[in-house]
Design a protein that fits this description.
This protein has 31 residues and is mostly helical. Helix content is 87%, strand content 0%. The longest helix has 27 residues, at 3-29.
Amino acid sequence: MNAHDSIMQGLNDALAFAQRYYYVSDSAHDY
């Protein structure tokens, strides 16, 4: 894996984490 692939994987992981975090936050406000 080269540096570019590693960076892109890191960004994808961060994006997935952020999406889960915001989904949970939005769900919490519904109740």
